[in-house]
Amino acid sequence: MKAGVLYSGGKDSSFMAVMLKRLGLEVELCTANFGVYKSYIPASKSAKSLGFNHRVIDLDIDLLDKTCDMIMNDGFPNDGIKFIHENVVENVAEEYDIIADGTRRDDRTPKLNINQIKSLEDRKNSVTSL
C-alpha cells in the first residue's frame, strides 16, 4: 500500500512517515505550495535527509485567497487552517491508499472529524486516513 504523508518537514510529520515506513508501507511525503514562495524547499531537504520521496502539491492561489478572506472575516485562524487542510487531504486522496499527517490527538486544528473521514473513505474508494 502507498501512503501519502502531508509533510511540513517538522518532527510530527517526519515521525509519522518513519512509523508508516516501519509498518512496511511505501511512503511519499507531500507538501502543499501556492506558488507564492518556495516554502517547500526546507521540507524537501528534510525528506531527502530521511530518505523519502518528496512531492510538491501545487495548489491554486485562489484557495489561499479564500482562506485569507475566511480568517479576516472570522478574526480567528482555525476555520481557515482547517479549510486548507481539508482541501489538501482531498487532493492527496486522489493518489494514495493511506493519507496521514502529523496532527496530534490534542491538536485543535486542523482536524477532520469522523464523519469527514468516513465521507472521504466512501468517495475515494476506501481510502484510509491516519
What does this structure look like?
By secondary structure, the chain is an alpha/beta fold. Helices cover 48% and strands 18% of the residues. The chain is built from 5 helices and 5 strands. It has helices at residues 11-22, 40-50, 61-74, 78-92, 114-123; strands spanning 2-6, 26-33, 53-58, 98-100, 128-129. The chain has a 5-stranded parallel beta sheet with strand order 3-2-1-4-5, sandwiched between helices. Strand 1 (2-6), helix 1 and strand 2 form a beta-alpha-beta unit.
Summarize the structure.
This protein is α/β, with parallel strands linked by helices.
Give the helices and strands, then pairings:
Blueprint: E1 2-6, H1 11-22, E2 26-33, H2 40-50, E3 53-58, H3 61-74, H4 78-92, E4 98-100, H5 114-123, E5 128-129
Helix pairs in contact: 3-4
Largest sheet: 5 strands, parallel
Strand ordering within the main sheet = 3-2-1-4-5
Shape: globular
**Structural class of the helix and strand makeup?**
alpha/beta
The rounded distance between the terminal residues' Cα atoms is 14 Å
Quick check: average pLDDT?
86
- Tell me roughly what share of residues is in helical segments: 40-55%
SSE series: EHEHEHHEHE
Query: Count the strands?
Result: 5
Q: Ranges with pLDDT <50 over ≥5 residues?
A: none
Integer-rounded radius of gyration: 14 Å
Classify the beta-strand content into a percent band.
Answer: 15-25%
Number of helices: 5
